[in-house]
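ok so for the tutorial part 2 we go from a plain amino acid sequence to predicted structure tokens. step 1 is just haveing the sequence, like this:
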Amino acid sequence: MVTTSGQQPLLVVALCYAPYYTAPLAVLVSPPDGIMGSLLLPSELRSIEKLREQELEEARVIQNLMMPAHPLRLAGVTISHQFHPVTEVGGDYLDYFKLSDDTIGLYVGDVSGKGLPAALYAALAVGTLRGIHKTGMEPDRVLSLLNQRLLLRGIPGRHSAIQYALFDPASARMRIVSAGMPGPLLLRGGNSRVLHIAGMPPGFFSTATYDELSLQLEPGDSLLFFTDGLTDARNIADHEFGVEGIEDVCRRHAGESPLDFLGHLFSAIQDFTTNCRKWDDMTAAYFHFAG
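step 2 — the prediction. this is what the tokens look like for a chain of 291 residues:
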């Protein structure tokens, strides 16, 4: 029984069938206008659920369209990626592109939370980044502008970890700034090394600054950018895949194409987490410099 202040008790019963119960559930609601509503039939509930599924599928398609459609191949550089949201849509995002000064930009981001709210915030971050004229701009300045513009939105409880890299094919110089992200990994000569770059995720503090790491790449070098969904993936014994798991894949599949390498990486995580629930989005971008 549901009551409202100053009114007679009102009862509206909607019979619905949840997939995990054999008996109907009684849903009690009180219409704000005090008028008794009609019963919501099971067929109507199924229509609502179907509409929700269609909307989520459309959101998934739109989010995929925000990702690069094809690997980038330019000036001895190849970049490929994989994106695996834990639900229909996720809070991870990435992009890679050629700038007008012939440099190559790449970013990978991870929004706090999961599902549709995180996906909407990811869309905001991507739109903001695409609105920043990055040609000729220092990588740390790109993240500073992203931080300032996200703070203007003032969305409570949301922030975005991110790495932004800028590569100049003419000098083979890679510049990376990072804010709350693991890695990236540098793969060179069959070995891998974690590059530790500190930084506060955009959306927290207006005074945040970002340190830049500069690398002189050699022909054959690769870099793996990834979100923490890969390292945090757990198996049935509650052990994390970890950076060690990624480095093991690097040792076993060094020298393979970016697309093939990512296939091996995500297959290894899939095998590791067999019979376990997936808890986080997983996204990775593989950058290879042939020279």
